[in-house]
Each structure stands twice: as C-alpha cells, then as structure tokens.
TrEMBL record:
Its cofactor is (R)-lipoate. InterPro entries: 2-oxoA_DH_lipoyl-BS, 2-oxoacid_DH_actylTfrase, 2-oxoacid_DH_E2_comp, Biotin_lipoyl, CAT-like_dom_sf, E3-bd_dom_sf, PSBD, Single_hybrid_motif. GO terms for molecular function: acetyltransferase activity; lipoic acid binding. This is Dihydrolipoamide acetyltransferase component of pyruvate dehydrogenase complex. Residues 2-77 form the Lipoyl-binding domain. Belongs to the 2-oxoacid dehydrogenase family. Its EC number is 2.3.1.-. Keywords: Acyltransferase, Lipoyl, Transferase. Residues 119-156, 162-196 form the Peripheral subunit-binding (PSBD) domain. One of its GO terms (cellular component) is cytoplasm. It comes from Megasphaera cerevisiae DSM 20462.
Length: 440
C-alpha cells in the first residue's frame, strides 16, 4: 500500500509549511533517507526525507503551496502501484478541515487599518487577491497571528462578502459594515459611498488606486526561495516593524587577549566570541529589560537568557540558540558554540535549537568588518554586532600606546529599550571585556 508523505511539524508553534522545492520527480526511484522535498516555515527551511524504499508515485502539493501540518504532500509506493482517487484527493487532513472557520475581524487585539499591511503567507495573499478578500478582515491562526491559506479559504466560505481593498478601506473609514451593503457581485467603492448616502460628486473626490504594473522577471533573475526567502521575510518584517537604534562602543581587548593566551597555554582554547557571549550574558543579568521581547501590546519579561549566535552557512544565515547561556561557564559556552555551528553547517539542527532566543550576537570580525548595524531578530529586543580587533594608537594614562581595539555595536528595539539603558549595557560590556577576570 502506498505510503503518504505529509507536512511535518518542525516545532511546537508550527501550524503551516510551504512547499519550497521538490527534489525528486514523479516516477523517480527513492531510497530510505533520500531527500524528497524542501519545506520552509517562518523560521527555518528543512528537508523531508523518504521513510522507505520505493517510487515517488504522485506529487500532490505543488511548489509554492502552503499547507497545514499533516497535510498530504505526495505518495511513495511500489512501481506500477495505483493510488485510489479518494486517497489522492485527500490533500488536507480531516483535523484541518474540521477546524472552525475564522471569523471576520470585529475587535482584533492588534488593530490593523483596512488596506494596511497584514502578516500573511504568499499563498494566503494569492487566495485573498484572487477572491477579492481584504486580508485585514481575516483572523490569522498561524504563528504570531499570521494569516495562512486555510484562514483565507475558510473566511471566504464563512463570509459571503466580496469587496475590493479600496472599498474595504472606505467602509472602515465610514464605519459601515460591508455585510449590510446590498449589491450584485463584488462590492466596489461606489457601492460603499452610495450606502453611506454620499453624493456622486463625492465619489470623484475619493483618490483612485492605480493598478500596479505587472512585474517582469529579469533576464538573469533567480526566484527567491528556500532559506533565502525565509531570511528575506523575517529580516524584512523585523526592519519594517522595529524602530532600530544602534550604539557603538570601542573596547580595549588587551586583557582579553592575555587571558586567552593563558588558557591556550593550558590547552583550554576559547574564542573572543565565546568570551563576548559570556560577558553579554552577565550584562543581561544586570539589565533584564534588555532581555525582554515584545508580543503585540505586551512586553514579555523573559526569565531565561537564551543567546542566539549567527552562523554563516552555504546559501544563507542561521541563528542557533544556546539555552540558559548565563548558567554556562566559559569553556561550556565554547563547546556549545562549536557544536551548534557544526550542526548548522551540516543542516542537522533541531527546531528547538533554532527557537526561543532572547538576544543575538553576530560576529563579522573574521571578515575584516570595522562597523555594521545588525538588524534585531524579532521578537527579541537587542542584537550585538561584533567587529574585528585591530591594533590602534590609543591614549592610556596620558601615554600613546598600541592596543588591540574592537568595535561592538548594540542594535535595539527603542519600544523596549531606552537610550540610557542601552548606554549602560554597552558600558558594562566594555568593563567586563576590559577586565575579563570578572567573568570567571
């Protein structure tokens, strides 16, 4: 009997995944452990592997399609095996079909203006666009309230109102319920104004929306997909939604380099990154609101300090998380960073190792970087950018000396962290790194 390939759950919060790319074609022979299809979520890109030997009999979910967890993606079976029509049609599990249809937004927790930007999957946007449904009227059931494809489909079924985005905005501005407007077909702006009793002359005064030009694929263009697409979405959302401020502090690494040399002499090697993680954890213990996160209208006071460490891999960037990093010693941090970096490059990180971060460190020093402004990784409040250590002429005790100096850049969400607090954080970080024995 043919075995189903289903959408995996790559974390406790995952409700939906998008088929990024099929790595096998229908009719291909597959072995247990072969890579079948690439799945992407809000956080990661992952590979679904074959659980048995056989042939990829049928592909049900197409590339670019977003589906709920446990939804049918395809079938593996024996050569020549037939798939029943009923089974082939079961692309969505019964549990997903039986979910209650999302209601129209009447009093959403986070107010979104009609026609405004709504976090949604590409597939959900396509469904809404094709059906003439304003996404601000749909309640998202995805991660952090994100609108997914099934939300749009269920909302179109539950609500018979078909209204253009412009009409929806005008209706919201005038306080009119679109469901109360009687018209044949899709509700347009003129229908809303007529329902409000506004004269036809006023219709002309309402700005018209010009259709966007059809995008043309560049001759040498490559479709944004997989990990690159996830990075673009996550960092794009972070930059749009987070009021960033950056503080730069210059740190004398003389004592840190001396301490590292002593450890190396004892065959106990650690990197500057390890030491900076240890120092940042100590700072976050003292200034706890720099470890907070924002969830809608609420500031979350995270009890744990979970440090994300940005790791460059082929095709992108990934941020594994060291859980309870403040409870680890320097050499424990060194071991954990090495383990997570290795897993990141081997693509073997678990969903738990990629979630739950409360602060992130990004070190570009090995690339000769003297200054950069890192983007905060939402919902975190802060990220520390680490630059290269370079010998400079500096004044110490009225004497010009040569010292290894390093720039550290704190990027932070100004909704959570004030400038004074950020200044205290960077000053304390400098104090720890210039006096590293305080960390031991």
């Amino acid at each position: 009997m043919a075995a189903e390939i289903t959408m995996p759950q790559l974390g406790l919060t995952m409700t939906e995944g998008t088929v990024s790319q099929w790595l096998k074609h229908e009719g291909d022979i597959v072995k247990k452990g072969d890579e079948l299809v690439e799945i992407e979520t809000d956080k990661i890109s992952n590979i679904v592997e074959a659980h048995e030997d056989g042939v990829l009999l049928k592909i049900v979910a197409q590339e670019g399609e977003s589906l709920p967890v446990k939804a049918l993606l395809g079938y593996i079976g024996q050569p020549g095996e037939q798939i029943g029509a009923a089974a082939s049609a079961a692309a969505v599990p019964d549990s997903a079909k039986s979910m209650a249809a999302p209601a129209l937004r009447e009093a959403p927790v986070q107010k979104i203006a009609a026609g405004g930007w709504v976090p949604a999957t590409p597939y959900a946007r396509k469904l809404a666009r094709d059906g003439g449904l304003d996404l601000t009227l749909v309640t998202g059931t995805g991660y952090n309230g994100r609108v997914i494809g099934s939300d749009v489909a269920d909302c179109k079924t539950a609500a018979t109102v078909r209204i253009s985005p412009t009409a929806a905005k005008v209706a919201a501005d005038l306080g009119i319920d679109p469901a109360a407007i009687q018209t044949a077909g899709r509700i347009m702006k003129a229908d809303v104004l007529q329902s409000a009793g506004i004269a036809a002359a006023a219709v002309a005064a309402v700005p018209q929306v010009t259709a966007s030009p059809v995008s043309v694929v560049p001759a040498h263009g490559e479709k944004l997909k997989g990990m690159r697409k996830v990075i673009a979405q996550r960092l794009g959302e972070g930059w749009r939604n987070t009021p960033h401020v950056h503080h730069t502090v210059e740190i004398n690494m003389t004592e840190a380099a001396a301490l590292r040399g002593k450890f190396i002499a004892m065959d106990r090697k650690f990197s500057f990154t390890d030491l900076i993680i240890k120092a940042m954890c100590k700072v976050l213990e003292e200034y706890r609101n720099a470890n907070d996160s924002l969830d809608g209208a609420y500031i979350i006071h995270n009890p744990e300090i979970n440090m994300g460490v940005a790791v460059a891999i082929d095709g992108g960037l990934i941020v594994p998380v060291i859980k309870n990093a403040n409870q680890l010693g320097l050499m424990d941090i060194h071991q954990k960073v090495g383990e997570l970096a290795r897993k990141a490059r081997e693509h073997t990180l678990s969903p738990d190792e990629l979630s739950g971060g409360t602060c992130t460190i990004s070190n570009l020093g090995m690339y000769g970087c003297d200054h950069f402004t890192p983007i905060v990784n939402p919902p975190e409040a802060a990220i520390l950018g680490v630059c290269r250590t370079v010998e400079k002429a500096v004044v110490i005790d009225h004497q010009i000396v040569i010292a290894p100096m390093m720039n550290a850049v704190l990027g932070y969400d100004h909704r959570i962290i004030d400038g004074a607090t950020a200044g205290l954080v960077t000053s304390r970080l400098r104090e720890y790194l210039e006096n590293p024995l305080l960390l031991l």
